[in-house]
Every structure is written in structure tokens, then in C-alpha cells.
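Recall that a protein's primary structure is simply its ordered list of amino acids. Everything else, from secondary elements to tertiary packing, is in principle encoded there. The following example makes that idea concrete.
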Amino acid sequence: MRPRVLYIDDDLFMADICDLLNERGFEVKWTTNIDDSIEFLTHKGRTIDAIVMDLMMAPQSLSGSPVTTGLRLIERIRSPRDSQQALDVAEDIPIIVVTGVSRLGIIEQARQAAGAENVFEKPFQPERVADALARLLNVTD
């Protein structure tokens, strides 16, 4: 079975990374806004193996600036299972953050919230994200 990845990014120019991930053997579900992402994670979150997400997206249902919205979504993904905010995802699901925000404080917050060192600043080489996913999910070519 192909590893399943939820890719969350409202930047339509990032479609090439989804194509590359598919070529590398991942099955990719792409959502382009917070509401669709929350809806998917609420009802089908256990069907995915990893999340790759942008940090800066339009606020929609989560209040705050675009940057804090991405951080708040990560916090919601990581919230305890018995919390009202909890989504139906594995507690230890790997999260890779891709962001155009270059402020060190925001990047560090994303690392801490995601629980990983996998934060890629845009522009980045899509192959690096694919390699990081492969390592996190123990996928070999």
C-alpha cells in the first residue's frame, strides 16, 4: 500500500510537489484551505500517514493572522485525543512544514508545534521534502 500524505497549501504553484510525491510512490490528498483540511482530518484523518503543510494560509474558521492560523492548525492536530479540539489523526503523525515565512521565531514555533525538525523555507527543492517524507515513513525507493 502506498503511504498516504495530506498536503495542505493554498499556493496553487506548489502542484509540482504533489506530482513529485505521486511519482515517488506516495498517495497525495491536497487541500487548499483550513476548513477543508479540518473537515478531512475530522472524518478521514486516520487514513493518512503524514501531513505536509504550509504555515501561512487564509484564516477562515480559525481566527488569527495567516501565520498563526497555520500554527493553530498544527496545535489542533497535536491536541490530546480527549480534547474537544482533537482531530481524528494518529497522535504521532509526522508533520512537515513548508513556509514562505522567514522569521526565525515563527520557524522555531513551527518546529516545536510540529514536533519535528522538518521545516522547509520556500522556495525549496521538492525532492528534499520527498526525501524527508521517505525517511519519516521508512519508505525505500
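The radius of gyration is 14 Å. The longest helix spans residues 66-78.
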